[in-house]
Structure formats: C-alpha cells, structure tokens
Amino acid sequence: MNAKDIPVTVLSGSLGAGKTTLLNNVLNTEENLDAAVVVNDMGEVNIDAELVEETETTDDEEIIELSNGCICCRLRGDLLDEVGRLAEERDFEYLLVESSGISEPIPVAQTFALGYDADFTPEDTGRDFDPSEFYELDTTVTVVNAHSVYENFSSGAALTDEDVEAESDRMPEGVVMDQIEFCDVLVMNKCDLVPEEELDEIEDVLRTLQPRAKIVRSEHGGVDPGEILDTGRFDFEEAQSSAGWMHELEEGHHHEDAAEEHGVTSFVYRERRPFHPGRIEEFLSDIPENVIRAKGYFWIPSADAVAMGIDKAGTSVRAGPNSRWLASLPQREIEKYFEKYPEVEDEWHPEWGDRNTKLVFIGREIDAASIEEELDACVMTDEELERDLDSYRNPFGSDGQTEVGN
Ligand SMILES: Nc1nc2c(ncn2[C@@H]2O[C@H](COP(=O)(O)OP(=O)(O)OP(=O)(O)O)[C@@H](O)[C@H]2O)c(=O)[nH]1
User: Fold this and answer.
1) Staple partner for 360: which of 43, 103, 217, 278, CB 3.0–4.6 Å?
2) Which of 14, 367, 360 is nearest to 173 (CA)?
3) H-state helical runs in 210-330
4) 363 lines ligand 1 (CB under 6 A)
5) 220 lines ligand 1 (CB under 6 A)
6) Measured from the CB, is residue 217 less than 6 Å from ligand 1?
7) Strands 306-313, 316-324: pairing kind
8) In the CATH scheme, what is the code of domain 6-260?
9) 189 lines ligand 1 (CB under 6 A)
10) Predicted ipTM?
11) Residue 406 pLDDT greater than 50, yes or no
12) pLDDT per residue as tens digits for the range 213-251
C-alpha cells in the first residue's frame, strides 16, 4: 500500500442543499478522476447512492454506501471500517465523503483528523487501522441552499446570528449552524433561485458567520473540482480553536444519534402495484409540511417505460420521468442485466418486471402511518387495473422532473 496520505474532502450541508448534485458534478467534470466516494444517507435505503450510481461512474471510482444511520454517530465505526478496507485494497487519489444532511460535521472530520480515540478503538471494528495513517483531512465543505437563506432573511431586517439560529431551528437541524461554522469551503448553491441583487447580501451573512471559509457560489452544484479537492485548506490548529470543535472534544462522542436528537426520522414506502396517476399527483401537491425531504421513484401505468422520480426539498416538490424500467427493454438486454445483477431477477414480478415504487420520506416527527395510509389510497385497485392501462393520463409529462402543485 501507498504510504502517501490521501486527501479527504468531507461534504456537509442541510437536507436537499445540493450535496449529491455537487458530488455528481465534480465526478463528471473531471475525466478519469481517481476518487473513492462514501455516501451516507439517513434512510434505510440509500437513495443518494443510487442517484450517484445512476450517473456514469468510471472504473476509477468506487462508491461505498452507508445507510440507516449517520456517520457522525452510529455508523462511525462503519466509516472507519470501510475507508480502512479501501486503503488496503487499492490506491486512489482522493476520498470524497458525503455526510447525511443531519450529520454533525465535527465528529466526521475528527474521524479522519484524529483517527481512533478512547471511545473508538480499533477493537470496536476488529481492525487494526487508524485512518490518520493513510488519510489526511484536506477540505471540509458545507453546501448551503442560498435560496432558503434568502427566503428566511428577505424581510430586509439586519441579519444576525439569531436569525440564522432561528433558521436552523426551522430547517430543522440545529446542525446547520455547526455546518456553516465548521468548514473550509462554503458553497452557496441554488444561486439561480435568488434574485441577482440579493446574492451579495447572502454572501455577507455567510461571511459573518464563517470568516475563515472560502465562499464559492454555484448553480446546480457546478463547482470546479479544484475548489474542493486537495485544496490543503483544512487547518487542524485553527479548526481546533473554533468553539464547536472544542465543545465536541470535551463532550466526547457519547451524544445521541443526531437523528433522534433533532427529532428527524425517516421511513421507506414500498409498493409493487402502480399508483393511480391522478391520485398520486394530488398526494404530491399536498405533502405534509413536516416532511423536509422526499426522494425516490414510483410507477404509474400511463408512463410504462419510465420510472417517475420525485424530489422534495423544502417547499419545492418535483416529479417526472427519471429512468427507464428495465422491463421496457428487449428481452436480450434484460437477460444481460440479470447475469450481472442476479438480485434484480430475484425480485422480478411476473407481469410488471422491475416496475415498483420506493419512496423515502425524511422529516421532523412525521406521521409515517398516516402518510402510508394516504399512499395506499393512491395505489390502483384491482378494478382499475383491469382497464386498459394505456388509457390512463400521465400528469407528469415526459420532460424530466417538473414542479408539482402550488
Ligand atoms: N434550482 C436549483 N436546484 C438545485 C440546485 N442544486 C440542486 N438542486 C436540486 O435540489 C434537489 C436536492 O439536491 P440534492 O443534490 O439531492 O441534495 P442533497 O443535499 O444531496 O440532499 P440530501 O442527500 O437529501 O441531504 C434536487 O432536486 C436538485 O436537482 C441548484 O443550484 N438550483
């Protein structure tokens, strides 16, 4: 193995701020980028990793998924385990870690900066591996949604730290503030959604909160890879002197799972039968407010060849064609796919093939049972399924994901 330290970039940012978009952008911009990627998602199903995988990854890239927990707490040992395994297996130039929207950035950074400590000994993972031997924390990046900063502060009043605290309560992660305060690069994403003349003000707010970071504006995560990879910006001494970092050192890692601490829960909805297009459209235009984020895909009969994706971030709900169902391809192609991914064949439905619905909901104190009930009511009845399926209207168009409702 190479003794050289691999620079690590840790991406943080609130739910839906655009971390995955930025990650994909960076992976696709630079040809032959020799990077390994760790994606951490809160839900049981790692939709983020699926979304990252959908974009073309070259053989040079490897994506590790860590699901159902957050890498700053419960999955911290797993993170160490995986990056240890990676370093043993092969050489690569960069390690990119996308933490879940609710991860506290400090413990994640500490994992790389300090390696094991008294609480996380190699014995915990049965591995004699200290990440700081092979990795060097290089850049901590926080992606913020410029639009939500704008929406919260557009009253014209002076912008204070309290405003941001208030915003982070709403967001609903008190973590947002930590994420802004603790980073080397602050990506102000979704600039396209903010009036041009407001951008400077938003940047001022962010700079007040985080004078040390380099602020980079972006639209759809379009950031030059050089801004976040191997920048050498992480400064252990300086980071250590920041209040949050000290606090974390003193507290140790016995904090609750960040998810529970902030009342954030998630659940997955799965269904084999299609949704009635009209009813699911209605559901999507009226998703309960405490659902902060919804992601995934569903099937409606009127769009037989394509899976409909949904993406809710803040008040915006987008839905529309996402990717083709395998079942719509020629049999020969399907067989080829089965050879490569036998698990897909295992789940194949005799009539519908791979068509199915998988939706992840993340929210603050969400009522999973009632959402499930509402979705169940969107599923087509036996009677409806007997009709000619092509006769159903597709309300989501054929042009990618577009805004639903209001
Ligand atoms: N208008 C606009 N939309 C954006 C921009 N960046 C990302 N989006 C959209 O915002 C939504 C959320 O983006 P993601 O990249 O999935 O966000 P994320 O931070 O990875 O989300 P989580 O993993 O759930 O925390 C998607 O629908 C993106 O297409 C942007 O700059 N402008």
Assistant:
1) 43
2) 14
3) 236-241, 243-251, 258-261, 277-284
4) no
5) yes
6) no
7) antiparallel
8) 3.40.50.300
9) yes
10) 0.96
11) no
12) 899 999 999 999 999 999 999 887 776 666 555 555 444
Whether residue 17 has its Cβ less than 6 Å from ligand 1:
yes
Convert 91-130 to b/e letters by CB count within 10 Å (16 or more is b).
ebebbbbbbbbbbbbbbbbbbbbbbbeeebeeeebeeebe
Name which residue leads in pLDDT, 113 or 47: 113
For the record, the structure tokens of 353 come out as 């093939």
Q: How far apart are CA 106 and CA 239, in angstroms?
A: 9
- Sheet strands side by side (includes 6-13): 62-66, 35-40, 94-98, 6-13, 135-145, 185-189, 214-217
Q: What does the DSSP assignment read for 102-116?
A: T--HHHHHHHHHH--
Question: Is 50 exceeded by the pLDDT of residue 155?
Answer: no
Report d(CA 267, CA 362) in Å as an integer. Answer: 7
Which residue among 20, 37, 40, 173 has the greatest number of ligand 1 atoms within 8 angstroms of its CB, and so is best to mutate?
20
Q: Ligand 1: which of 21, 52, 151, 268 to mutate, judged by most atoms within 8 Å of the beta carbon?
A: 21
Residue spans per domain, the chain: 6-260, 264-403
Residue 54: both structure tokens together: 């959908």
Structure tokens at 228: 């976040």
Q: What is the pLDDT of residues 205-223, one digit of tens each?
A: 777 667 788 999 999 999 9
Q: Where are the alpha helices (DSSP H) in 296-365?
A: 331-340, 342-346
- Residues 6+ away with beta carbon under 8 Å from 199: 146, 188, 191, 217
Q: Name the strand (E) or helix (H) holding 83.
A: helix 76-89
Among the four given CATH numbers 3.40.50.300, 3.40.50.720, 3.30.160.140, 3.30.1220.10, the one describing domain 264-403? 3.30.1220.10
* Among candidate residues 361, 375, 12, 317, the one with its CA nearest the CA of residue 178: 12
For the chain, the 3-state helix, strand and coil shares in percent, each to the nearest 5, are 40, 20, 40
